[in-house]
Amino acid sequence: MIRNALWLAIAGCLMMSGAAKAQSWPEGPGRQLTEETCGACHRTSLITNSSGYDEAGWRHLIGTMIDLSGTDMLNEIAGYLAEHFPPNDRRAPTLVEGEHSIRFEEWVTPTLGQRTRDPVEAPDGSIWWAGQWADLVGRLDPESGEMEEFHLPSGAKPHTVTADAEGRIWYTGNGNATMGVLDPTTGSITEYEMPDPEARDPHSAIVDGSGRVWFTLQRSNMIGRLDPASGEVDLVTLPTANSRPYGIKLDSSDTPWVAANGSNRLFRVEPDSMAIEEHELPGDGTHVRRLAIAEDDSIWYVNSGLGRIGHYDPRTREAREWPSPSGPDSHPYAIALLDGAVWFNESGQRPDALVRFDPESESFQSWPIPSGEVHAGIIRHMRPARDGSLLIHQSSTNRLLRVMPED
């Protein structure tokens, strides 16, 4: 018997058209069942482009998404995948040795298939995450390992979470066009609807020093500002079409800067008027998922489109870039500054590589990121914690991780 409650959603997805199915998968026993079950909730290209597994590996990976244990379905699906998608090294990262040491701590979140993502530290030291596919946010006590999940309104599909100074947890309702906030002391949730029907997909968010919540809307090509005191939401559309605003950070003057996943630009938002200032980066293929702002207000960014990391000085408008160790298809994704170094991940590789870049020596060092018994990913966000560690995650295996530098 299938015991995962998410199977109800998956069963409903099976009524969908064949758009999510694989193209030209090999014939054989289990093909149709595998296409329908896997394609119900994600692109099946994630399978064809994976590093492949033996039957035990496929069983383990399936078990992070849905509980099929003890069913003929599991035997049929895992057998088909193992036969036609065995282990390969097509996406193996180029790991760089170095003098630094790190230690990983990891926790597996309770609800299967939730796509655990975007961990952030709250003022009380707890770690919060978004379970996007399960409409939940969760809290981890890193000292005891205890976890609690809070269910959000159906269809919210939270893309990210961020904490304000009072410890309230803000989330972006990527699926129902809302911004929401959870009061952990009472469990109450307040939703704020978008004032424009074209504002469909709140994406990433951050809280400024006055308590206002800034957020991006990627496919809507907008940036939003929410004032919790009045409940008012203001929106501005980016001047360059299809810029797909993604990551957002604040500089030392509480001014938002936004990365563009659809154009070779960074955007500065004037905090009061919300006027947009464009900053063009080199390279027509440049797309920036996320950015990090240094103490001098210069900007480090991942050039996801060209497989590089970059540094941009807003005062001189000069940019400089370095190739990521695994090359142009490595797809750097998340980025953070920690202890004088730039940290990012290569999401195009299996396993994901965590990379450290030293700006002084311009040297790299990298490590494979653990994800249980499989090489799955991916890290979509990373944020420093107050103890000098780095908070990351592995969406495909529902893992939260803390990276502890040891030197």
From TrEMBL:
UniProt keyword ATP-binding, yes or no: no
Secretion signal, residue range per the UniProt entry: 1-22
Keyword Nucleotidyltransferase in annotation: no
Keyword annotations of the record: Signal
Domain of life the protein comes from: Bacteria
PANTHER family associated with the record: VIRGINIAMYCIN B LYASE
Protein's UniProt name: Cytochrome C
Annotated organism of origin: Aquibaculum arenosum
